[in-house]
Amino acid sequence: MSVIRVSSLLLVLTVVACASQPPAGQSTVGAVLPKPVTLPSGTDGDITPGGPILPGGQTGQPQPLPDTRPPLNPNLPKSIEGSGAAAPVISLVKAARASLKAGRTDEAGASLERALRIEPRNPWIWQALSSLHVVTQKGEQAESEARKSNSLGRRNPYLEVENWRLIAEARKLRGDQAGAEAALDKHQDLQRFIAP
């Protein structure tokens, strides 16, 4: 770049910089002050806690956002027993729960595998498998099964509330604390939704 171009560029930058500065001795404080605020009548300049000033000079607290979820369908099953599953499937899931409670994880797994052969798309069986794999500390498998249960459950919050708790436990097993907290938040949100 030639010396003339550099000099011209410096001259232009100097003029621009000088134009953006106030004249010597003049402050910019007045230029940045906001417009005066007119207080509602009767306040005498005393603003008391109580929330924002609403139209008409009233104060109020912000209102919570309305719940946008649809109302609960009273016909949604709350357990496998009310889900319309075949009697042998219900019996196998109950047997698996009893075996798991007694610490016989192999028996529980065998019962649930038999139940899956009868009804492979039953979300309650997938939930029971997830529970088994949380107990046996197979976090990745447990989360996958709880997610499958959610996808098959057709947005049943009674099913999803337990699945999100299982997902939180599965993530803890894998060392994903942030993911576990996010899943627990969903679990608690659903629990509030279905609470009577």
What does this entry look like structurally?
The chain is mostly helical. It has a domain of 115 residues: Serine Threonine Protein Phosphatase 5, Tetratricopeptide repeat, CATH 1.25.40.10. 58% of the residues lie in helices and 0% in strands. The protein contains 8 helices and no strands. Helix 3 runs parallel beside helix 5 and helix 5 runs parallel beside helix 7. It is globular. 25% of the residues are buried. About 3% of the residues have low confidence.
Short description:
58% of the residues lie in helices and 0% in strands. The protein is built from 8 helices and no strands.
Count the DSSP helices.
Answer: 8
Based on helices, strands and strand pairing, what is the structural class? mainly alpha
Which of globular, elongated, flat, extended, rod-shaped describes the shape? globular
> What is the residue-averaged pLDDT?
79
Give start-end ranges of low-pLDDT stretches: 43-48
Helix content: 55-70%
Any idea of the CATH class of one domain? Mainly Alpha
Radius of gyration: 32 Å
- In CATH terms, what is the architecture of one domain? Alpha Horseshoe
Share of residues in strands: under 5%
CATH topology of one domain: Serine Threonine Protein Phosphatase 5, Tetratricopeptide repeat
Write the element-wise H/E pattern from the N-terminal end onward.
Answer: HHHHHHHH
**Largest pleated sheet:** none
| Name given to the CATH homologous superfamily of one domain | Tetratricopeptide repeat domain
| First-last Cα distance | 78 Å
| Overall strand count | 0
Q: Which descriptors apply to this entry?
A:
196 residues, mainly alpha, 58% helix
